[in-house]
Amino acid sequence: MMRLFAALATVALAGCSQVSTIEPPTREKIVEAALPPTRTFSSTRPIPPVRSNVNIASDFVALHFALESGAELPVFTRFDQPITVRLTGTPTASMQTDLSRLLSRLRREAGIQIEQVSEGQANITIEAVSQRQIRRILPQAACFVVPNSSSLEEYRRDRRKNKSNWTELRSRERIGVFIPYDVSPQEVRDCLHEEVAQALGPLNDLYHLPDSVFNDDNFHTILTGFDMLILRATYSPELRSGMTKEQVTSALPNLLRRLNPKGQSIRPQPQSDTPREWIDAVQRALGPGSPSPRRVRSAQEAARIGQSKGWTDQRRAYPHYLMGRMSQFDDPEGARRQYAIALQYLNATPGTEVHRAHITAQTAAYALAQGRGPDALPEINRAIDVMTQAENAALLATLMLLKSEALRQAGRFDQARTVRLDSIGWARYGFGSDVVVRSVTQEIGQSVSRNSGG
User: Fold this and answer.
1) How far apart are CA 153 and CA 53, in angstroms?
2) Under a CB-based contact definition with an 8 Å cutoff, are residues 22 and 437 in contact?
3) Could you read off the pLDDT of 79-122 as tens digits, one per residue?
4) For the segment 361-379, what is each residue's pLDDT rounded down to a tens digit?
5) Which residues contact 17 (CB under 8 A, 6 or more apart)?
6) Which of 66, 141, 425, 448 sits between 20 and 30 A of 156, alpha carbons compared?
7) What Å distances lie between residue 357 and 174, 353, 368, 375, CA to CA?
């Protein structure tokens, strides 16, 4: 997909004839100046949860009383005073902008008293560090959150002490969040949302949640309406640090009746836990490196487990989506069949619009390859609307490039160029300006070489 992006982005620069004559040492600066500016999102429009309060109460308990590893937490914890946040390290401008937006949403949508401070000890310290620094401590982590530390150095020194163990926590006073500054703006923002949310409340991830960042499938990248309801409930006056699971469970029905009255009239749905063997199979299927027989077998195992459990939700769809991704280059027809199976379950599951948009990005590319771009336009447009609301700039840029090519196949060349140019601004946020500039520069260099007979 990045090769497609580079090729189409280069076409967007057609007419900038001076670019093609620039010598390599200064080419990247010229290309960056010629590219459209980075696009950013402004107002967030979260969709309220559409599930019964009975199910949401069960989710709340599962999110707060266990870790992703399966370890149980003995008591409920949160901050019991107005919360201060400090940004340290080497933050980028976009990191500060997105943190300000996040804190504003937390105040407005979750009712949390939270403010940023510029100096002194804070309840939540967000340290901007390099990817290398993070990987030295947690090789598989993109970013992470820990209790009772305000710097990466403090956590490195004390990581094996009880103070750094979530199961030993009885109240939240000081939390450290560590986020890389040397990734794309969207990756930084995604880390801010998930890690700050976990610093405030839930520490678990649940694969059965279709509309939440508290899910390791990573389809959602910013806090959703469901997530904000969970955080609002976390900081409601009915709850306090130190409460047991039984005490929290007893308080939730009246609490949710007050916070989410619509959830009272929705019929509860049967809900089953996600077994560890399914989670392990999915994690193996997501393993690093190119697709391998072991990864395919792991996805097939997850699909079999889902079938044996009688699931019909997005968990049943997810292994088929993964198998489609793994086979899309070597076996396009097989990949299409896997995506069709995934869509069969997603179409019957409320709150899975984002999941379906991800599949559209794959299936629309096949339609374009067969010259059927105009037929795919309605589906691409729906997916663009979904990704705009979900604020996923990387997938939005990809979908817009697909739309541009579909418009070109339909003979609507002016519209195609406009959409293509607009996609570059979103790509700079989603993939990172350096990635975009390098892709365009490389493509221009290859074009110059071809045109000069090299």
Assistant:
1) 42
2) no
3) 999 999 999 999 999 999 999 999 999 999 999 999 999 999 99
4) 999 999 999 999 999 999 9
5) none
6) 66
7) 38, 6, 16, 16
